[in-house]
Amino acid sequence: MEINAEECLKANDNLYVQADVESVLMKDCTDGSAPVVSIVIPAYKRVSMLKHALSSALSQDTVLPYEVVVVEDNPEPDTEIGDYLECLDDPRLRYLKNSSNLGLVGNFNRALTVGRGDITVILHDDDFLLPSYVREIVRVMEARPDADIVCPRPFKWLDGTPLELPEDDGRPARLWKPLTSWEPFCRTFIPTGMAIRRSSIARSGGFDYVSGPSTDLYFIVRAGLSGLNYYNYDKTLFVYRWSENESLKFSTRCAFIEAGFPLRRHLLSRSRLPGFVRKALLGNYSARAVEDIRTNFPDMEFDPSFLSLPSSAAEKWFNAKTADITAAVLRMRKYLYPSI
Q1: What's the mean per-residue pLDDT of the chain?
Q2: β-strand pairing of 128-129 with 149-158
Q3: Virtual torsion, Cα 146, 229, 156, 210, nearest 10 deg
Q4: Rounded Cα distance, 182 and 111, in Å
């Protein structure tokens, strides 16, 4: 069933849907300082990967006080994650354990609400921060007081290949504001590594429970529509780990399209673009989605009848060129902003 994008974007109470489930404090910070930054890590069973994420969070090159909060979404007693965290002796570490399983989206929403710092940073349990993350994110958010959300540039690492991080040349980087309602057409948002002011979390609406694997995309559009200021920071500050098998299930790919198409259609309907441009952008998305899923799953049946497919090769070419030009124009916004 197709997702109702308009209703999904209106869902602003996601943070409190499962408020009756308690997150039990299993381990508390002992350094007594008030954290400026809270690095929150939603976790579920992947203890080997969590070790790398947690190590990167606890190894920040900064004198600023910060905390690292692991939220385990596994109510079972004596878990591997629990055993590992209980053995760690770091005064900045907090460990919470959900009394019932919240699921992926629910645990992300819970993680957003448990930090005590002025800035909350979400870190996936299979990704990791570079040592300069906290120092840099505080600096840029102090330089831009109107920024509610800042997303640094990720370094995308294919799991199993050598990790060769780019060197920080020390040069300033652009802190720029995309058009949030156009995110689906440029896809510049990744929730891991995101920094959000604690005072802005409630207004963000949290991650919704309806849009499936596209919940991160709906999150940033919803946050923008609610009036939050979202910035990209063009400096690599974290590693986004991905696998060749990630999101390659047929059902997952279908869910991406079923959620992504109505979101794009809804946002285009709100725009002031000429009708032929709106049609071209939606047609290009539809054609690329079908080509992608049929290339990767040639033996599976996919029904594209709900999409806006081009009727000819000429229309397909026009749609692609229109989309390329639109994306280029949108990305040029960054050059309106100075480096800091």
Answers
A1: 93
A2: unpaired
A3: 150
A4: 27
Beta carbons within 10 angstroms of residue 30's beta carbon: 11
User: Token digits for 90?
Assistant: 């770091």
- Is the pLDDT reported for residue 189 higher than 90? no
Strand ranges (DSSP E) for 18-176?
23-27, 37-43, 66-72, 93-98, 119-122, 128-129, 149-158, 175-176
Which pLDDT value is given to residue 2? 72
Distance CA(128)–CA(142), nearest Å, equals 23
What residues form DSSP beta bridges with 37?
Answer: 66, 119
d(CA 136, CA 175): 12
What is the C-alpha to C-alpha distance for residues 181 and 170, in angstroms, rounded to an integer?
A: 32
Res 264: pLDDT: 95
Pairing of strands 128-129, 119-122: unpaired
Instruction: Report the pLDDT averaged over residues 255-281.
Output: 94
Q: Which helix (H) or strand (E) holds 79?
A: none
Instruction: For strands 119-122 and 23-27, give the pairing.
Output: unpaired
The predicted model scores a pTM of 0.94
**What is the C-alpha end-to-end distance of the chain, expressed in Å?**
46
Q: Which residue has the tokens 């948002």?
A: 189
Q: Identify the H or E element spanning 332.
A: none
Nearest 5°: CA angle at 181, between 215 and 135? 75
DSSP state of 35: P
Q: What are phi and psi of 122, to 5 degrees?
A: -90, 130
> Does position 247 have pLDDT exceeding 80, yes or no?
no
